[in-house]
Automatic annotation (TrEMBL):
It comes from the Bacteria. This is [NiFe] hydrogenase nickel incorporation-associated protein HypB. The keyword Metal-binding applies. Keywords: GTP-binding, Hydrolase, Metal-binding, Nickel, Nucleotide-binding, Zinc. Coiled coil: none annotated. GO terms for biological process: protein maturation. Residues 13-101 form the CobW/HypB/UreG nucleotide-binding domain. Pfam families: cobW (PF02492). One of its GO terms (molecular function) is zinc ion binding. Belongs to the SIMIBI class G3E GTPase family. HypB/HupM subfamily.
Length: 127
């Protein structure tokens, strides 16, 4: 089986949608930190949602995924007090592979950072 979407799959799916009624379309290209990074699917921007539970070293281990992102949502930050996760080290590692990439600290559990994420998205969508 496939570990990611490709442009043809997305095009087929788009044919089923009322595109005139859609302002923003999110395409979740799931898989792992390797496969989806290599394939463009017609996106205008690429956002990576990264859970801090994955550790600080992942930008260095999987640089292509982090390098291809326009924004990294650093998620689950509500867990920082409970984990051995060095946020500053993660951000240094992120800057090592994608200097100055936009990043927003978020928590789906608390809603922290969601307004900032929506503003970022709205600005890029031209809404």
């Amino acid at each position: 089986g496939e570990c990611h979407l490709d442009a043809n799959m997305v095009r087929s799916g788009l044919a089923e949608l009322p595109l005139g009624d859609i302002d923003v379309l999110v395409i979740e290209n799931v898989g792992n930190l390797v496969c989806p990074a290599e394939f463009k699917v017609g996106e205008d921007v690429r956002v990576m949602v990264y859970a801090i539970t994955e550790g600080e070293e992942k930008p260095l281990k999987y640089p292509l995924m982090f390098r291809s992102a326009d924004l990294v949502l650093v998620n689950k930050v509500d867990l920082l007090p409970h984990l051995h996760f060095d946020l500053e080290k993660f951000l240094r590692n992120l800057d090592a592979v994608n200097p100055g990439v936009d990043r927003i600290l978020t928590s789906a559990a608390t809603g922290s950072g969601v307004d900032e994420w929506c503003s970022w998205l709205t600005e890029r969508a031209g809404a």
